[in-house]
Amino acid sequence: MGSLLISYWNLPALLLVFPLLWRPCESQRAAGDYRPNILLILADDLGIGDVGCYGNETIRTPNIDRLAKEGVKLTQHISAAALCTPSRAAFLTGRYPVRSGMESTSEMLRVIFWLGGTGGLPTNETTFAKILQQQGYTTGLIGKWHLGVSCESRTDYCHHPLNHGFHYYYGMPYTLFNDCQTGQAPELGKVYKRYFWFYFQMIALALLTVAIGKLTGLFPISWKIITCLALLASLFLIPWYTSFTFVRHWNCLMMRNYEITEQPMRVERTASLMVKEAVSFIERNKKGPFLLFFSFLHVHTPLVTTERFIGTSRHGLYGDNVEEMDWMVGKILEAVDKEGLRNTTLTYFASDHGGFLETRKEGAQWGGWNGIYKGGKGMGGWEGGIRVPGIFRWPGVLPADTVIDEPTSLMDIYPTVIQLGGGKVPQDRIIDGQNLMPLLQRHVPHSEHEFMFHYCGTYLHAVRWHQKELGAIWKAHYVTPVFSPADAGACYEERMCPCSGEYVTHHDPPLLFDLSKDPSENKPLSVDTEPRFVAVIKRIRLAVQEHQKTVTPVPLQLSLLNNVWKPWLQPCCGTFPMCWCDKETDNLHSP
Fold first, then answer.
1. Would you report the helix, strand and coil content of the chain in percent, each value rounded to 5?
2. DSSP letter at 503?
3. Which of 25, 53, 77, 84 is catalytic?
4. What would the mean pLDDT of 233-251 be, rounded to a whole number?
5. Residue 334 neighbours by CB under 8 Å, 6+ apart
6. Distance separating alpha carbons of residues 226 and 452, to the nearest angstrom
7. CA 173 – CA 116 distance, rounded (Å)
8. Are 475 and 513 in contact (CB under 8 A)?
């Protein structure tokens, strides 16, 4: 009884001491057995040179810069592809996109072009969201998807985020293009006109030939064959024709889970709706653990920017759009702090690939800046298309204000978050990503990556070798794009650099650079300037042979037939083909 009285009268003192006693326990849980909330933020088309903490002095990004100040900044963070669809597939699966068929042999169709197509992230791929979902995480995706919707019917949703491990989805299943904003010059229409019109003419010519042959009796042929040719021709004619009128209605839409909420979307309010959705998700799931993947539509053209940010930067509309994106990052981080989740949340920020150099308006550069690095979006090997910002923050677990200059990959997010969430990385397939926690916590001096393979479509363009014992990072280019004009540093005449054919140059021996000394890839080495040239090329060639043995053929999701528009797969709200609805005004999540 006496001890109880002593404890009772000393209660105020104990209350003062209790927080000090609790802090070591908190740190031990965070570093050991505590499963964090996971917040993944991925920008679209953002160049590494567009962010303040990576050297930009004309665009203000205080919220992203604060993440770097409070966490770990990676200077050699590499995307698995220089285009949206394959890059995001690799991010979600931890695998080179060629392993899942999320690449293409085509010069043009290297991303998903139609929501009414059959291509998309295969159902047999296991995303990190699916594994964390099985571990008790509430998983959400807000924003861009661009990995397909359906396979055989409009409502099977086989490629939809909810079938790939996300409990909740709100966003744009496609991607922003000029066609999504009224008053902008058609962007996709030009591509369709060039591509589909050519194939329609070829098939129409064959159809006319066999029809004349049948009617004149020059050669026997079945009417069934003629009918099939006619149907095939229509598959190319319809996308070409409708691209001028229906692209905005059919591709530019917003969904909440399986429900279409806007068709066509009102792009001017999309940013505020996405932020509101993110804040709401954090508030609903603050007891955790949760995984939130916030996938920006910024800073993809047409650079839709709200009025409050127009003219605020020193870098034109593109800078305004980046600054609005940074503001959105700030609002999401503010929600995390407001709910007291700052120290229990692993936050990650990156871009899916480099900035888009070929985007111009009225003769002026309208895309991103990739800093000192050569090339940009769509170029499989040059650093400017694949080296991106990469920032991690987890107070108390990861060191603050730390810079790591080691090769890392967006694919590393896969094993990293799975293991933090208590899951197991699949053993029935090759996972190309590496767990980053030992490197981020500075428990090991080097990245586990020795070789990285840089594809453009299905074609291997370049290979990176991290020779740790020498501190060298060799980069061998087997194929490089032919810039147009030749001295432009980009493919302005083609609008995006193709991966093969007459548009590329093959190098034998390959162009070799030491990125540790020449990160801008300006001075290719030779046997005259680098005594290890032959040995390095030989070792890289051996690595390529070993890697290619692990790449097994799979169906190409971005093939021509998968990317042709199919009316029966077209997501539609309202009466087809004039799909239209606006349910946001009546929705509780609307502003």
1. 35, 20, 45
2. G
3. 84
4. 65
5. none
6. 49
7. 11
8. yes
Separation CA 129–CA 94 (nearest Å):
12
The rounded distance, in Å, linking the Cα atoms of 120 and 458 is: 16
Query: Measured between alpha carbons, how far is 499 from 110 in angstroms, rounded to an integer?
Result: 9
Catalytic residue among 77, 146, 315, 477: 146
Q: Assess contact for 53 and 73: CB atoms under 8 A.
A: yes
Least confident of 182-186, 394-398, 414-418, 522-526: 182-186
488-494: Cβ within 8 A, 24+ apart: 489/357, 489/374, 489/375, 490/357, 490/358, 490/375, 490/376, 491/358, 491/378, 492/358, 492/360, 494/358
Q: Is 146 a catalytic residue?
A: yes
Residue 507: how many other CB atoms lie within 10 Å: 16
The reported pLDDT for the residue numbered 16 is 35
Tokens encoding 185: 């010059």
Amino acid making up residue 220: P
Question: Domain locations in the chain?
Answer: 35-186+244-586, 188-242
Q: Rounded to an integer, what distance in angstroms lies between the CA atom of residue 22 and that of residue 19?
A: 5
Find tokens 């080691």 and name the residue. Answer: 406
Least confident of 129-133, 242-246, 491-495: 242-246
The DSSP bridge partners found for residue 525 are 512
Q: What is the mean pLDDT of residues 82-105?
A: 97
Over the stretch 309-324, which tens digit does the pLDDT of each residue have?
A: 999 999 899 999 999 9
DSSP letter for 221, please: -
Q: Is the CB of residue 358 less than 8 Å from the CB of residue 319?
A: no
| DSSP symbols for 188-219 | HHHHHHHHHHHHHHHHHHHHHHHHHHHHHTSS
- DSSP category for residue 34: P
Query: Residue 203: its pLDDT value, please?
Result: 61
Alpha-carbon gap, residue 318 to 325, rounded angstroms: 11
Active site residue 180: no
Identify whether the C-beta of residue 251 lies closer than 8 Å to the C-beta of residue 569: no
CB proximity list for 178: less than 8 A, separation 6 or greater: 184, 185, 186, 187, 188, 301, 302
- Distance between CA 391 and CA 70 in Å, rounded? 10
| 27 close to 398: Cβ distance less than 8 angstroms | no
159, 160, 161, 163: CA torsion to nearest 10: -70
Residue tagged 């296991």 (tokens): 126
Measured torsion, CA atoms of residues 279, 284, 285, 286, in degrees rounded to the nearest 10: 70
Predicted pLDDT at 292: 98
Total residue count of the chain as it appears in this document: 591
Q: Per-residue DSSP letters for 114-149?
A: -TTSS-SS-TT---HHHHHHHTT-EEEEEEE--S--
List residues bridging with 2 in a β-sheet. none
Residues facing 350 on adjacent strands: 42, 390
Task: Indicate if the alpha-carbon torsion angle 482, 488, 489, 493 is positive or negative.
Answer: negative
Architecture in CATH of 35-186+244-586: 3-Layer(aba) Sandwich (3.40)
Strands 37-43 and 360-361 come out as unpaired
